[in-house]
């Protein structure tokens, strides 16, 4: 075990300053130009050279006392959301209609803090740390998939990441081996009927009726066809049909999402959704077209690496603040990295019951006192992992 790292007050202040600056300039997925240039400048100021795998990410490497050892990657996501901020923070978004409403500004600040801290302790590194500032986490296809396809993890032994997590109580850090976040797919359905006057439904094939029957049956997949011990969700989020109160339309359209941890359930969803659409449409003499889009895979934490990073957290936090993370049916494209290399992704609690707003809310904010905790855990994990692997 190497010497325990310390995060000074000046470094804590610097990390918070980075978060507040980044918070003011949110950019959507694949459009992170200002963010990317700022991250590059911060890293250049720390004497890092930067590069990119996709032209949209920012990559920097720190070689330690020897660069003959393995490569450990640490990832932060850079993109924001199309949400109008309503926090009244003095450093609120300067880009109207856009907001860092998920914590990515904090993730970047945490990892910049790791880059700064490790650069001052490189003599303790026996290998290489690769910093991945990733674009487009909030969309599909996302930046993680593109970085993996470009070879960004081909020579990586392990990768670490964290999420500032409002559902977890402030001050606690959550770890979980195995599946942590869900696979997240979407589907679209177009129902073709035969329109007509609302007073003569017998002369129509009503796509409104067809859609409502189909949706009711789709909702029964989880409740009646999947083992209740297997977490899964199907939700319809969009439904469009008709333009007038007295006209039966000829078309209807709806979209939904499915979430799962077991890949077999993904296959079951695809087969069963089609079976239901076939049956319902045939019973009403309607037709349909549909499209199933595979999204992020389940995020799988490697057992031994997760236990190792959890052990590093005990150097900075009392045992009662290190908890078993609850599985989330939310998707996270860090999952693409977990399919390529040993990975550990953990949650940093920022929630206060009744006093905080959830992710993607216009009033969402993070607790900045938790930023240095993330920096400490990631930096200490990098040093001790590379030391153990030398």
Structural overview:
- By secondary structure, this protein is of the alpha/beta class.
- It has helices spanning 9-23, 33-45, 104-119, 143-149, 207-225, 263-284, 303-313, 335-338, 371-389, and strands at residues 50-51, 58-63, 66-77, 126-134, 158-169, 173-175, 178-181, 183-192, 196-197, 232-241, 247-248, 251-260, 287-296, 299-301, 322-324, 342-351.
- An eight-stranded mixed sheet has the order 1-2-4-3-5-16-6-15, with helices on both faces. It has a four-stranded antiparallel sheet with strand order 10-12-8-13, covered by helices on one side. A two-stranded antiparallel sheet has the order 7-14.
- The longest helix has 22 residues, at 263-284.
- Helix 5 (207-225) packs antiparallel against helix 6 (263-284) and helix 7 packs across helix 9 (371-389).
- The protein has two domains: 9-181 and 298-389, Aminopeptidase (3-Layer(aba) Sandwich); 183-296, Alpha-Beta Plaits.
- The protein is built from nine helices and 16 strands.
- The mean pLDDT is 96.
- Strand 1 and strand 2 form a beta hairpin.
The overall strand count is 16
| CATH architectural name of the largest domain | 3-Layer(aba) Sandwich
Q: Strand order across the biggest sheet?
A: 1-2-4-3-5-16-6-15
Helical percent range?
25-40%
Residue stretches low in confidence (pLDDT < 50, at least 5 long) are: none
Shape: elongated
CATH-level-4 superfamily name of the largest domain = Zn peptidases
Strand-pairing-aware structural class: alpha/beta
Can you tell me the CATH topology of the largest domain? Answer: Aminopeptidase
Query: How many domains comprise the coordinates?
Result: 2
Which percent range describes the beta-strand content? Answer: 25-35%
**What distance separates the N and C termini?**
13 Å
Radius of gyration: 24 Å
């Amino acid at each position: 075990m190497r010497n325990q790292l310390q995060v000074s007050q000046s470094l804590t202040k610097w990390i918070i300053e980075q978060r507040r600056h980044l918070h003011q300039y949110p950019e959507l997925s694949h459009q992170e130009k200002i963010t990317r240039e700022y991250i590059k400048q911060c890293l250049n100021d720390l004497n890092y050279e930067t590069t990119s795998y996709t032209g949209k990410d920012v990559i920097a490497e720190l070689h330690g006392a020897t660069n003959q050892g393995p490569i450990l990657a640490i990832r932060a996501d850079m993109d924001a959301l199309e949400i109008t901020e309503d926090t009244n923070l003095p450093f609120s978004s300067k880009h109207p209609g856009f907001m860092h409403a998920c914590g990515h500004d904090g993730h970047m600040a945490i990892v910049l803090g790791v880059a700064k801290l490790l650069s001052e302790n490189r003599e303790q590194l026996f290998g290489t740390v690769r910093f991945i500032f990733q674009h487009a986490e909030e969309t599909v296809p996302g930046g993680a998939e593109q970085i993996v396809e470009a070879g960004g993890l081909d020579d990586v032994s392990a990768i670490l990441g964290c999420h500032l997590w409002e559902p977890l109580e402030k001050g606690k850090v959550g770890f979980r081996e195995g599946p942590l976040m869900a696979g997240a797919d979407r589907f679209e359905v177009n129902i073709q009927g035969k329109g007509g006057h609302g007073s003569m439904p017998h002369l129509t094939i009503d796509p409104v009726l067809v859609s409502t029957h189909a949706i009711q049956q789709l909702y029964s997949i989880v409740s009646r066809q999947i083992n209740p011990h297997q977490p899964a969700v199907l939700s319809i989020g969009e439904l469009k049909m008709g333009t007038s109160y007295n006209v039966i339309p000829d078309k209807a359209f709806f979209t939904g999402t499915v979430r799962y941890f077991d890949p077999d359930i993904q296959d079951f969803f695809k087969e069963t959704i089609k079976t239901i659409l076939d049956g319902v449409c045939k019973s009403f003499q309607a037709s349909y077209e549909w499209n199933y889009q595979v999204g992020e895979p389940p995020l799988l934490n490697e057992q031994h690496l997760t236990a190792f990073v959890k052990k590093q957290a005990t150097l900075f936090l009392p045992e009662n603040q290190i908890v078993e993370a609850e599985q989330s049916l939310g998707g996270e494209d860090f999952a693409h990295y977990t399919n390529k290399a040993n990975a550990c992704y953990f949650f940093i609690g920022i929630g206060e019951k009744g006093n905080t707003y959830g992710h993607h809310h216009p009033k969402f904010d993070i607790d900045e006192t938790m930023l240095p905790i993330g920096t400490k855990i990631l930096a200490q994990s990098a040093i001790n992992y590379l030391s153990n692997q030398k």
